[in-house]
Here is the input.
Amino acid sequence: MVAHFSLILLALLISGLPNYVRAFVAQNITARDTIKGPVISSNFPDPSLIWVDSENSWFAFATNGNGVNVQLATSPDFTTWKVTGQDALPTADGSFVMYYAATSAQDSTAHCVGVATSSTVRGPYTPLADPFACHLDLGGAIDAAGHHHPDGSLYVVYKVDGNNRGSGGSCNNGVAPIKSTPIMLQKVAADGYTKIGSEVQILDRDDGDGPLIEAPSLIHVNGVWFLFFSSGCFAETTYDLSYAFATSVTGPYTKARGPIAPLLVTGRDGLKAPGSACVAKDGSKIVFHAWLGDSINAGRGMWTGIPSISGTTVTL
Here is the structure.
């Protein structure tokens, strides 16, 4: 069976708490019907999204928080969401593949992308012994996500965490010399993690992005590849959601510019620091996080959206 894909960011392993279920009904505090939220009003950052036919349900995974390593929420209708309290991490070579970031055993100042597998979407997921990508000399690797190519082949995109080796300032990369934070593309076999060939760089930050780009989510719609990403700094109101497009999976990718991009910014629809999105593989749904209060200290809840795609233009 072709591996399913889900993006999970895991920066810290913490002990689990007893399972709980919290239900949230989608609000609409925005000016547009295409954006609703927070649909999860507890801390649920860096959400990923997958529809599972056998469960007749949407599943969202999030960075560690609320006492568990990998958070899990479900929704039958993309409107009402339940955070289960289940920890998706503790078999191998199962149908579902989770990519996550964790501190490197070789360098505690950096992260590597790891892979875990499970026979069911709900887990538990068992990590593989070896990391998928590290790039420790460049700052580490984070923010991995899977991509289904229309020819049936599989890819993984991730960020080289260059700002981790920065000189300070915004997200540690606002002081010269500014480090690159490239998005990499790696082809993989049907198991979702055995590499085929070498990784290639498909995007990088520029002066218009601020200190970094990160959180890639890659889809294909009507002959066009769309690479969604965030720029700015997640801990500041500069954080946003934008995208680039190409007619080949390996690029070259062209960043969308104003007035059609960024798609989401602070102040629009009452959002603060929106970003770190995951887009359903057909482009029909999107989830992203934003601050729940006036600073990141209030936590980051999950919002949902319904994108519209025409040619190379995405609107929300």
